[in-house]
Queue: 4 jobs
Job 1
Amino acid sequence: MTAATEGRPSPGTGPAAGPLASARGLTKRYGVRHALAGIDLDVGPGVTGLLGRNGAGKTTLLRCLATDLDPGGGRLTVLGESPETSAGRTRIRRGIGHLPQNPVLYPHFTAFSLVDYIAVLKELGGRRARHDEVRRVLDAVGLYDRRHSRVRRLSGGMRQRLALACALLGEPRLLLLDEPTIGLDPEQRIRFRDLVSEFTRDRGAVLSTHQIEDVGALCSRVLVLDAGRLVFDGSPDELTGHARGRVWSAARRPRDAATAWRGPDGRYRVLTPEAADPPADAGEAHPVEPTLEDGYLLFTAERG
Ligand SMILES: Nc1ncnc2c1ncn2[C@@H]1O[C@H](COP(=O)(O)OP(=O)(O)OP(=O)(O)O)[C@@H](O)[C@H]1O
């Protein structure tokens, strides 16, 4: 079933020139712990992938961009606006869509009423245009047919898609997505990729994820955070290239590999610290083409 699309609100407006978001020396501390330790960053159109270990600072960065958290220091602009003033924060919130990690959804609401409630909070147009917009985003995430279902009766993946529908309301210029594909089945993940890819033809998205395949499939640029610092900023191909000549299929697990794991064929995928010959204790070994995951694993392994 297709939702009505007429009368939908126009994309969030605001200063058009310049990056969609820009940070200089951005810091955020929780007590003595630096969650962000001086981030310099410009976010442009397209999908920017944000990778990093658990606790690296990805959610903190997204929450600062979403004006949900006050950074402790540095300069930040989002959609050309500073979040330091109340008026600036309001304009940013109207122009972005934020899918937080572990979104809280009211269980007794129906899917439609929940998205409509968020649309009211976002002050999206009159009732008719707002309802058209609610139907549009529910349709976009494949939940239009479940619009009358109570949130508590939806599966985990459906709830995640419902939260994504809320983030898409009002055609924001910048989408901030914190682990959006958690719990999605493979079909819905592809649908999600297509949706975000179409969406970012003329807008931007920052996608924090541990699903490296999503980064390879969607992102023109990838950032790696490590202990609150930006340690890599480049294309997925460049990150993959980091592992070139350092990935082996080996008969045995060598002692000094950066990373090694046993595959279903009983052989070991071995990532070596240096581009050199395979480790002598790996037994029979031959080089294999690196993946984005190899590049990321080697890059983070080098940082201890
Ligand atoms: N509310 C909080 N109070 C105290 N410390 C916090 C808080 N939120 C995050 N932290 C700390 O800040 C650091 C960065 O956390 P953050 O959630 O941004 O990491 P992340 O990269 O998103 O991790 P993950 O991949 O596990 O979601 C961690 O050391 C974390 O323990």
Job 2
Amino acid sequence: MARRNKVKVIDAPPRKVTILGAGSWGTTFGKILADGGADVTLWARRPELAREINEAKRNSDYLPGINLPPSIRATASLEAAVNGAAMVFVSIPSQSLRSNLDALKPLVSDEAIVISLMKGVEKGTGLRMSQVLEQGLDIDRERLAVASGPNLALEIAKEQPTAAVIASDNLATAEAVAMVATNRYFRSFVNTDVVGTEFGGVLKNLIAVAIGIVDGVGYGENTKASIITRGLAEMTAFAMAYGAHPETMAGLAGLGDLIATSSSPLSRNNTAGRLLGQGYSFADVVGRMQQTAEGLASVAPILTLAAARGVDMPIVQQVSQVLAGTLNPRDIAPHLTTDSLEPQGERPNDGRQNRGGSALWRPFQRAFNQLRDGGRGSSGD
Ligand SMILES: NC(=O)C1=CN([C@@H]2O[C@H](COP(=O)(O)OP(=O)(O)OC[C@H]3O[C@@H](n4cnc5c(N)ncnc54)[C@H](OP(=O)(O)O)[C@@H]3O)[C@@H](O)[C@H]2O)C=CC1
Ligand SMILES: O=C(CO)COP(=O)(O)O
């Protein structure tokens, strides 16, 4: 049974916050928090990386050329990192999370807030990262939060102005985290749509792989715009089938992140897709990636979750076929992904003209009806 603990509303930066994972995002998030005034400790599993961060205030493997704030400390000891931390941010590859939780569980204090910075779902279980944290740490969801949004690490490390979303079932938890994760170049907004915020970050990776594939093939802006637009419809249909608010998918954690990830060569998912489009096999691409491209591992569990709720995801399906080597990247065809003659999701109607094959349109229709009938929207971002 989950331990029940009251969440303290923190109205000043906490004494100590810690980040687990000193890769590109964990280190960048450490900089965000330190530049916002927090006392930041980074956990790097390799002692030599912890040493470089402490002594040179650099992380040359993941953020070459970036000077880290002098106040950031790093340690390779999980216990030293977590001891006394009021907030524990987790930024390791999604498929590695569960294997770290047994060691972490006894170290997290009963009052600490735990925040997922990750954008994947677990293979095998299909669980979102906050669900894996909830299970593995036996923690109340009120003490959990997730962060997402258009957040390419290197741009933020260069202090380019950026916005993000912090979501928690408990608004006070999201607000406490957002207050700490805000500084002169980074602004965190809050909402309570954890499902939408988390799935937004996962799903945009899959669409970014598709964009990378067509980029690698050499197709131009029409193809990419078609995939982004139809991809957002797929993302929204999927997320709403799992209870997300459509507004979340239209906000920073959905459309915002989709645009950033699909258009940037900094994106690892986009890069992986581009290699596939250039003819490299899935195994070659995995071998060439130096950093985490979450989308590659999330395709299969997302398609399983989609099938369980009857959601059509033709673009994600095609990505899966390219990964499996059963579809030539040149044959990715966003305009051929439906048997309906109606451009789904493109024409608002009153439901009467909503003819067959429009699974992708249905969630928009439901959202429209809800708004028309005075239904409640999400707090959005
Ligand atoms: N980079 C970005 O722009 C953004 C990334 N994210 C998300 O953040 C998460 C982390 O990504 P990111 O920092 O980019 O990834 P990186 O590949 O840059 O870094 C991964 C980090 O996790 C560590 N790690 C790898 N395997 C394990 C393991 N089995 N146990 C413990 N630690 C491990 C690595 O340590 P080591 O160096 O020793 O291998 C490294 O510190 C992902 O879910 C990603 O989607 C979210 C927003 C932006
Ligand atoms: O999540 C990200 C940007 O918001 C980072 O994307 P990549 O993991 O594709 O680099």
Job 3
Amino acid sequence: MVLKIEHLTGGYTGIPVIKDINLEIQPGEALGIIGLNGAGKSTTIKHILGLLRPQKGKIVLNSVELIKQPTEFKRQIAYIPEVPVLYEELTLKEHLELTMMSYQLDEKKAWKRANELLKMFRLDDKLDWMPIYFSKGMKQKVMIVTAFLADTDLLVIDEPFTGLDPLAVSNLIDLIKKAVAQKKMILMSTHILADAEQAISNYAVLNNGKIEVIGSLTDIRKHYGLNESDSFDKIYQILNEEQRHA
Ligand SMILES: Nc1ncnc2c1ncn2[C@@H]1O[C@H](COP(=O)(O)OP(=O)(O)OP(=O)(O)O)[C@@H](O)[C@H]1O
């Protein structure tokens, strides 16, 4: 089990946004992608989800190559997007059923898991609700519940912490830690480093579409000359300075 991204170059037009990205995530590893606005985090994620076609390079998950076997590849991934995507005409219960069907889950086991997740995020009494009645945070929680319900080898999470109440943030951090303990792979893009630090130990720093450094929190701190007492957020000031002088 491993996610391998090799020499990935891509973007939206002929001009590449991300350049020669090399990443590997092992089972039981949570990797954070961090970088300034526009660094290419979401673009990298869109490539991993198969929403953009690479100009160069390949993405392989558990020996399945995205370009060659897209359906098999995508079935191994669950995704929590930055902006919740829900079907306006489906109830919460129907969203869960759709997830169970799409990922071919055992219904009995899946409902047990779904009920635990719903309770955790205080959605257990809202099964008949349509998305129109959900607040922004509630919609985000539905995305979290369906992603963790899918129980895939790889979970891709794009900026999950904004808009969640502190209780939901802490529940999400616990779920990520448990998934890591169960040897799942997590890839998460975020700017909220104080929250990320609680669940994520390895980071890739993207700068202008390229990976500047990849490693443990200690490695990253060392690379940017940060002391243990410095806030991890200081990285953003350094990246900004680097860009201004590039
Ligand atoms: N749909 C699009 N079409 C063309 N260019 C895009 C599109 N989406 C993003 N870009 C460009 O790609 C570059 C990287 O954007 P991306 O969204 O990957 O950054 P990011 O690191 O996720 O930023 P943020 O922290 O703001 O979410 C930016 O220069 C952006 O303008």
Job 4
Amino acid sequence: MKVTIVGAGAVGASCAEYIAIKDFASEVVLLDIKEGFAEGKAMDLMQTASLNGFDTKITGVTNDYSKTAGSDIAVITSGIPRKPGMTREELIGINAGIVQSVASSLLEHSPDVTLIVVSNPMDTMTYLVHKTTDIPKNKIIGMGGALDSARFKYRLAQALEAPISDVDGMVIGGHSDTGMVPLTRHATRNSVKVSEFLSEDRLNQVAEDTKVGGATLTKLLGTSAWYAPGAAVSALVQAIACDQKKMFPCSAFLEGEYGLNDICIGVPVLLGKNGIEKIVEIELDEAEKAKMKESAEGVSKVNELLQF
Ligand SMILES: NC(=O)C1=CN([C@@H]2O[C@H](COP(=O)(O)OP(=O)(O)OC[C@H]3O[C@@H](n4cnc5c(N)ncnc54)[C@H](O)[C@@H]3O)[C@@H](O)[C@H]2O)C=CC1
Ligand SMILES: O=C([O-])CC(=O)C(=O)O
């Protein structure tokens, strides 16, 4: 199993590290445009192999796509991250050009690749890859909801004063400060709805804190987060590489599901060796449907800014 990660920056390197530590891939290629950068990150990571006990071979290359040939899975993390006070959508001007050219270079050398898009604004970047390549829709996956759901569970566990492993929950919708739809009504602690333990006000606070999870970290760190994003990407890569059929909310191209068309947005999917093997349509109540519709309108507005 060969995995390429384009962009050896904070998220790309974190993702490579988690993939290596889980030791399910034979090879990880890190590619970056900055001379020597991916080579350096790969060497540093390889020097953790004997300490962390993995055999995954990590190599780094400067913009040489021939070294990515035959990749089964590729992750696109290349592009700029936001700074405090910015929205993800403000990154579109620079990142759209980068994502489009990276996707096309990857495809030249790995025509059967499954692509995971991370660069922001992620739902729009995923849509861009759909519109500008002939990769089948099941093989283009946007990572956002897996991260947002992990943050939701963190916030729920805090509110419940419970261990995170007791908690389950999911965030669907667009990966943006306003567009996320944390499914508070469906969240549980050991199969019991969290609404049995938390007031409506407290649950609303959990949802709001979840939605601005990325912005909160960007303010604290001066740039956007990388540990949880890297871990979330590695979980998606593992689900595909190991054919796990695990359910994650991912940005998927919709053709009628959830009443939406011609859009990539976060919905629950089953991930296995064929990428998105199924889009899972769960029952939403009227309030959740309205939030999903509003979120989709926001994503579509950003998509309209694309030029291709
Ligand atoms: N979807 C999600 O949930 C998340 C998305 N992100 C996004 O991921 C992206 C990367 O974030 P970070 O790793 O923190 O940024 P970073 O600045 O640390 O790394 C980005 C890397 O991309 C490289 N790069 C730029 N243009 C390139 C090109 N044409 N080809 C190859 N490499 C190129 C840069 O040299 C840099 O090393 C950002 O757009 C950020 O907003 C970050 C966290 C979560
Ligand atoms: O907040 C950002 O810009 C990066 C990101 O998507 C996240 O951490 O959720």
